[in-house]
């Protein structure tokens, strides 16, 4: 698991940039790609709005989404957690979706 702490007060785009930078560091995209389009996986504006509103109200929230095989968690305490790849964490037997 990788984690990164961001400063939400430094700029409005810092959250989105921080998430993308953390993902690029962890995933190491193929072919030397150094950018990642977050729009393919989550609405960055909505993510920023949710996290910023939660931080302003001093309520804890976390938003989870997947990017490729990685689980990304963005918390209102300025933390980005990246778990993965998800397939490697699952066992070969049993129900892959225990809540079902």
Describe this structure in words.
This protein is of the alpha+beta class and about 100 residues long. It has 3 helices and 4 strands; from the N terminus they run E-H-H-E-E-E-H. It has helices spanning about 15-25, 45-55, 85-90, and strands at about 1-5, 60-65, 70-75, 80-85. A 4-stranded antiparallel sheet has the order 1-4-3-2, with helices on one face. A hairpin with a 2-residue loop joins strand 2 and strand 3 (about 70-75). The chain is globular. The chain starts with a strand and ends in an 11-residue tail after the last helix. The model has no long low-confidence stretch (mean pLDDT about 75).
Mean pLDDT reading: 75
| Individual helix count | 3
Shape: globular
Low-pLDDT runs of 5+ residues are none
Q: What is the beta-strand fraction?
A: 15-25%
What is the terminal-to-terminal distance?
26 Å
Biggest beta sheet summary: 4 strands, antiparallel
SSE series: EHHEEEH
**SSE-based structural type:** alpha+beta
Number of distinct beta strands: 4
Question: Roughly what percent helix?
Answer: 25-40%
Rg over alpha carbons:
15 Å
Question: What strand order characterises the main sheet?
Answer: 1-4-3-2
Descriptive terms for the model:
alpha+beta; four-stranded antiparallel sheet
Summarize the structure.
This protein is 31% helix and 21% strand.
Question: Topology, pairings included?
Answer:
Blueprint: E1 2-5, H1 14-27, H2 44-56, E2 62-67, E3 70-75, E4 79-83, H3 86-89
Antiparallel strand pairs: 1-4, 2-3, 3-4
